[in-house]
Design a protein that fits this description.
Acyl-CoA carboxylase subunit beta; single chain; alpha/beta; 16 strands; AcCoA_carboxyl_beta; COA_CT_N; disordered N terminus; AccD/PCCB; 8-stranded mixed sheet
Amino acid sequence: MPHVSHDRLTTQTTDAGSAPRASLDQRRRERFARVEPRGARVHTARERAELLLDEGTFVELAPLKAAQPGAGSGVVTGWGLVDGHPVVVACHDAAIASGAIGAVMAAAICRAQRFAIDSGFPIVYVNDSGGARVPDGIHALHGCGEIFALNVEAQARIPQISVILGPCAGAAAYSPALTDWTIMVKGHGHMFLTGPDIVRAATGEDATADAIGGSGMHTRTSGVAHLEVETELDALQSVRHLLSYLPSNSDARLPVGDAVPVNPISAAGLPTVVPEKASVVFDMRHVIDGVLDNGARLELMPEHAGSALTVFGRIDGRPVGVVANQPAVRGGILDSKTSVKIARFVEFCGRFGIPIVTLVDVPGFLPGTVEEGRGIITHGAKVLKAYVEAKRSMRLTVVVRKAYGGAYIAMGSTSLGADHAWAWSNAEIAVMGPGGAVGLLHRRALAAAEDPDALRDELAAEYRENVARPYIAAEAGIIEDVIHPEETRDRLVAALRLLEHR
């Protein structure tokens, strides 16, 4: 056999492989060529995925998959890391058929969903789509239905977050509604089943896209979305922030960080933050500041149903979900929208074992024909159900001031399974407030009194001391203890440390 030099062999191998290599390089150049984003968009779909994830960690799934040669599938899917933890992403590509969901695009999204569910990784959907692709007909609709089915399957396994960075119309709008949390960009994100043109043709109503499905409408009025931000980058950073409180899946450990001391000024203010008079309002955020670790926290739905607060934060480095009545808004009363807001938050925390801290100052459920007509009974019952079913979470409750009637039960009571419950020394727990109770129990005496106002005050004081004070609940073992406000954080920290031994 003649001798063949190493150099000649290398040359032959390179020549033989040059055509396939060149073909692959050309396909990659064509497939990954940057198309300048249109309209208000700042980044391409691939850039959005890369910006969401830790730098240099994005790995694309099936990057050459295409609905037609050279056109791509209409979505960029893959996985990467967020703060070192794997996360799956699916970003609609508005450069291809305006991001419309066709059969090929739906199949790509479904593959990403299946990968996320089976791997136990959170999934983030970046929505920028005009809806189902009309030329694909039933195939597009079938693909959308398969996406929705996997949205539902994923609920029990992994966190799902939707980001609305453009239109999210028609069938495309149902997927965000089936995910856990939705973030919208102000002025850019729109989510609706039917857009302005169809609404005008069908009903004669002349409404803008913002009025029908803008971020303001959905984060304030409808409650369909949960956070409004100013820019694309703000939205992606908010996703990273939200993920920092969440386990990767329902079986994973919580992302416990280093313990950070409470803000000393907020902690020092706890003994005086609550006014002595039950009718005087205060901001429950001051109480939250006095018990959580100092630093970042994330309030979801801050502009919707404001008489309740739903906040992610940390205590002793451990993620917690805080549910709190907000006396500064309508006295902290519960209504239909507030009930849905609380139930959704508690249910989510329960699925992923996130401890639930409930801070209570609630006068009751809002009475009247309007709320009864809105189904307050059903919506209130959803709160009860959410707390009862949140067995995987440690449930810790503190009655800060008042807790009356069915609202006391609903706000994380031991009756519903709270692991530990305390009340501040000035708290009141009763079937109804002193004023209402006295009016009901002493109608005749008040009617016959020479000075009914003085008698009412006297009887109310007696009721407050003999019936409503928390010592009755503590002596019955219904709550664990009566505590000073400044003792609250230590009690919560001690309880949460038990999680290490569960």
